[in-house]
Amino acid sequence: MNFISLLAQAGGAASGATGAAGTQNPMSMVIMMVALFGIMYFVMIRPQKKKQKEEQNMRDNIQVGDEITTIGGIMGRVVTVKDDSLIIETGADRNKMKITRWAVSTNNTANEKAEAERQAAKEAAEAEKKAKMEEAADKSKAKRKKSKKKDDTFDN
Questions:
Q1: Using CA atoms, how far apart are residues 40 and 20, in angstroms rounded to an integer?
Q2: Where are the beta strands (DSSP E) in the chain?
Q3: Quick one: average pLDDT of 27-44?
């Protein structure tokens, strides 16, 4: 509450409009409310919408053969994909269950693919870094050999 009162005081001081009764300019209150709504939007609403969009995209991209986990914690492999439902196999005895798309929590197959891609990119970056370091070491050795040859010629 201290932050809000500081904003209100700053808005009143900036506009320089305080009445005889000590009331603030109504425009400063409107500006403060708009600023608070903007902060709330960027801190709470926008990230939540982004997360919901990513989850919906994940649910729309489920394919036959994907390993999924439901919101209830049931893990299974997708057997059939329909408009708003999925049929999954669970367990060793391959029990089949029909679930709705919104009940899918994670697509484990997609997560594994993404993790493998990240790991491959990381290994490629490390290999490139190692190659650059070896190249720099080779150049350094070549420079030392040249300087050593120059020193030998001066000694004669």
A1: 33
A2: 67-70, 75-81, 85-90, 95-100, 104-107
A3: 93
Q: What is the CATH number of domain 63-156?
A: 2.30.30.60
Sheet holding 95-100, edge to edge: 95-100, 85-90, 75-81, 67-70, 104-107
Greater model confidence, 10 or 126: 126
**Mean pLDDT, the chain, whole residue set:** 84
Q: Quick check: 96 and 103 in contact, CB under 8 A? A: no
Structure token digits, residue 49 = 């919408």
Domains of the chain, by residue range, sit at 2-59, 63-156
pTM of the predicted protein model: 0.54
Residue 147 DSSP SS3 = helix
